[in-house]
Amino acid sequence: MAEEKGKMTVEEAGKKGGQMTSSTHGKDFYSEIGRKGGQRGGRKGGETTSKRYGHDFYSEIGHKGGQRVRELISEGKETEIEE
Predict the structure, then answer these.
(1) Is residue 3 assigned to a domain?
(2) At residue 9, does pLDDT exceed 80?
(3) Closest CA to 8 of 71, 69, 16, 20
(4) Region label for 40, one of left (φ > 0), alpha (ψ between -120 and 50) or beta (otherwise)
(5) pLDDT of residue 2
(6) pLDDT at 41
(7) Domain range for 28
(8) What is the pTM of this model?
(9) What is the number of domains present in the chain?
(10) How far from 53 is each of 46, 49, 63, CA to CA, in Å?
(11) Which of 9, 21, 35, 59 is the 20 to 30 Å CA partner of 69?
(12) Same domain for 48 and 37
């Protein structure tokens, strides 16, 4: 866990939340939401967007996402060097 009291990383917070949800709801909860997701009507995720915007759209947003990840990694490395 993070060294300072009261601070945690996003990863730690996500793990803690997932463990809490799991302990609160149990295995049946996950089975039920999985079943409901499989029964969802209408177009499945991405079909409408894909038809509306096409291949170039996904290529562009993928590139933007990769650029943002690169920035965040760079910022993280700079923060580590400063500490």
Answers:
(1) no
(2) yes
(3) 16
(4) beta
(5) 47
(6) 60
(7) 9-41
(8) 0.36
(9) 2
(10) 10, 6, 16
(11) 21
(12) no
